[in-house]
Amino acid sequence: MSPFFVMSLLFGLTFGQTASLCAPSEYTIHVEKRECAYCLAINTTICAGFCMTRDSNGKKLLLKSALSQNVCTYKEMLYQTALIPGCPHHTIPYYSYPVAVSCKCGKCNTDYSDCVRERVRTNYCTKPQKLCNK
């Protein structure tokens, strides 16, 4: 085999790996309601990872279609519901959350995704914690 072919093959394999780093990833959500006695720690999956992005310094010279701002987002998802323990009878004790089944690189859809940078870390419990494995 020629050195050019080997280098091309290695480049293709390397690029293929970097382009496919968007995948479901384990994540823990902490959920609590003021009326309930416990905080629920829910293990789920979210979409996370790297997507190729093209953004040129010459934005004025290029068409918008040449610029790409892709994010790792849901391709398929389903919703599951958990019961928050220690809630009084007059409170709805259920919490529904998304579970990533598969992911893709694409435009961020604000209907079901947070498309801004994380500002403040608020994923913690202030009450005693119960774990929910799904």
Automatic annotation (TrEMBL):
Keyword Glycoprotein set for record: yes
Keywords: Disulfide bond, Glycoprotein, Hormone, Secreted, Signal
Domain of life the protein comes from: Eukaryota
UniProt-recorded name of the protein: Thyrotropin subunit beta
Protein location: Secreted
An example molecular function term from Gene Ontology annotations: hormone activity
Name of a matching Pfam family: Cys_knot
Keyword Glycoprotein annotated: yes
One GO cellular component, as annotated: extracellular space
Residues spanning the signal sequence: 1-16
Gene3D superfamilies attached to this UniProt entry: Cystine-knot cytokines
CDD domains: GHB_like
Subunit annotation: Heterodimer of a common alpha chain and a unique beta chain which confers biological specificity to thyrotropin, lutropin, follitropin and gonadotropin.
Domain Glycoprotein hormone subunit beta: start-end pairs: 21-125
Gene Ontology BP term (one): G protein-coupled receptor signaling pathway
